[in-house]
Amino acid sequence: MDYLIPSNAKKSLLIFGMFTKFDLILFGSGIVTTIILLLFISPSTFWGAIIDLLPALITGFLVLPIPNYHNTLTVIKNVYNFYTDIHGQKYIWKGWCVKDEFKETNKK
After folding, report:
1. Which of 15, 52, 61, 85 is deepest in the core (most CB within 10 A)?
2. Bridge partners for 15 per DSSP
3. Which residues neighbour 58 within 8 Å (Cβ) at sequence distance 6 or greater?
4. Is it the case that residue 89 has pLDDT exceeding 90?
């Protein structure tokens, strides 16, 4: 689910008003991976602790909600799609109450 409309329009469809199922699965897998790393590779140095915590930190960053978009992962996907789309780099934004000026009104 990509959100290119104001975040409050789809907020009721999100878990806790912020997350999709995929977000929670992604963050949960980061937490589980971090716990496994902490159990098997107990950190004895500062950098070892950072490496153990990286999965939770990275997945937490990806699902972090930001204004006007669903989350950081959606922004990254939109930027990636914009620069790799073979149909050109053009997004058409339509608001809620905008008249479609390009629609033919005189049909024969």
Report:
1. 52
2. 19
3. 30
4. no
Pick from 89, 71, 100: nearest CA to 7: 71
Which of 67, 58, 63 shows the shortest CA–CA distance to 30? 58
**Residue at 82: amino acid letter:** F
Pick from 61, 43, 59, 39: nearest CA to 51? 43
For 33-62, write each residue's pLDDT tens digit: 999 999 988 888 999 899 999 999 999 998
Assigned token pair, 47:
């950098």
DSSP string, 12-32: GGSBTTTB-HHHHHHHHHHHH
* Full-model pTM: 0.61
Evaluate whether 34 touches 12 at the Cβ level (below 8 Å): no
DSSP 102: T
Q: Which tokens go with 66?
A: 């930001």
Closest Cα to residue 10, out of 71, 64, 81, 90? 71
Are 55 and 37 in contact, with CB atoms under 8 Å apart?
yes
